[in-house]
Amino acid sequence: MSSLSTTEPSNTQSSTPQPSTSELVLASSSRSRRELLNRLQLPYQCHAPDIDETPHPGETPKALVHRLALSKANAVVALFPHHCIIGSDQVAVFEGDILGKPHTAEKACANLARFSGQRVTFLTGLALLDTRHQRHQVHVESFEVVFRTLSAQEIENYVAKEQPLDSAGSFRMEGLGIALFEKLEGRDPNALIGLPLIALCDMLRQVGLDPLGAG
């Protein structure tokens, strides 16, 4: 994890968030990330960022998720000037290719056919931007998945049932996607869903928002 450092606010939005006294903000529209953050039992509010997620030429997967996680947090800075803002982004990396959300059932099936019987690396960028003190922390969590050997019918059935079109890697580990795997390897399985909670808890403690602190 990086040490705290100064960052400049950027990428403002015109919409106004709902009034709240919570200091914590999740810069995401992801239901899965909201469900994960709920586990920490801290009050927070959500606001969806609006950023271009296109990789830069020559950008490595790690650099990409690092940049996008911080960019998502920065995108809502103007709306939350005295808060701690969480940004996160994830990609799958396979045979040198960076794979984001499939968006179509055909692409999801094609991805899973490539992954059949193979090991795939998932990188999740996590940023916590403290607009109270103009500092940020960024962490990239790695997690590896070994897929079962999957038949074309299994892949088609899975995609039809779960429609994982907005999930990096073309599956949802928290749902039926668990049936696709032979083995999971990594520190924090929550990272595979989209929010590395172990790393996030460490970041939150550093800014005085300890989930196990005094209520």
Task: Please give a handful of descriptors for the protein shown.
215 residues; alpha+beta; Maf protein; eight-stranded mixed β-sheet; 6 helices; disordered N terminus
SSE layout:
Blueprint: E1 5-6, E2 24-26, H1 31-38, E3 44-46, H2 61-74, E4 84-94, E5 97-99, H3 105-115, E6 119-130, E7 135-147, H4 152-162, E8 181-186, H5 190-193, H6 197-206
Parallel strand pairs: 2-3, 2-4
Antiparallel strand pairs: 1-7, 4-5, 4-6, 6-7, 7-8
Describe it for me?
The model is unreliable at 1-21 (pLDDT under 50). It contains 6 helices and 8 strands. It is globular. The chain is an alpha+beta fold and 215 residues long. The chain has one domain: Alpha-Beta Complex (Maf protein).
* Total number of helices: 6
> What profile does the largest beta sheet have?
8 strands, mixed
Q: Order of SSEs, N→C?
A: EEHEHEEHEEHEHH
Mean pLDDT: 89
Fraction in beta strands:
15-25%
By CATH, the topology is Maf protein
Number of domains: 1
Low-confidence stretches: 1-21
| Distance, first to last CA | 27 Å
Radius of gyration: 17 Å
Q: How many E-type strands?
A: 8
What is the CATH class name? Alpha Beta
| Sheet/helix structural class | alpha+beta
Shape designation: globular
CATH level-two architecture: Alpha-Beta Complex
| Helical proportion, percent range | 25-40%
